[in-house]
Amino acid sequence: MIFLGSFVKVNETKSAVGFTHYAPFDEKDGLGKSEKELRAEGIIVESLPTPSLSDETKVPVLFVNPTTGETWFEYQDRPLTLQEQQAKKIVQLEEQLKITQDALDALLLK
Questions:
Q1: How many other CB atoms are there within 10 angstroms of residue 3's CB atom?
Q2: Fewer CB near the terminus (10 Å): N or C of the chain?
């Protein structure tokens, strides 16, 4: 059994799952709560769908229908790495520098 909790409500039938525990009743690594206590905090499911990881620019986000217990993944843009952020900033700065240089050249050549 898998415990899903810490939901972030999107609407009445859709919540993002904030916490997943794959062995909630394990004596050593479990959550130390009864099934009734866990069901009061979240839901318990038998299994989860397998996310497809075909696009490296996306990350799977697990969603649940809190009423039915149906689970599914939706894919969101992955945050940029530090190197990707820096490369993007360099491109922006180079574009700004070219605009500034073109404007300066136009002023000096008049």
A1: 22
A2: C
pLDDT tens digit sequence for 7-46: 999 999 999 999 999 999 999 999 999 999 999 999 999 9
At 49-73, the pLDDT tens digits run: 999 877 788 999 999 999 999 999 9
Residue 7: C-alpha distances to residues 20, 60, 87, 97 (Å): 10, 16, 35, 46
pTM above threshold 0.85: no
User: Which tokens in the block code for residue 34?
Assistant: 């009864």
Token pair recorded at residue 100 = 């500034």
Same domain, yes or no, for 7 and 58? yes
What single-letter DSSP state applies at residue 21?
E
Dmax over CA atoms of the chain, in Å, equals 82
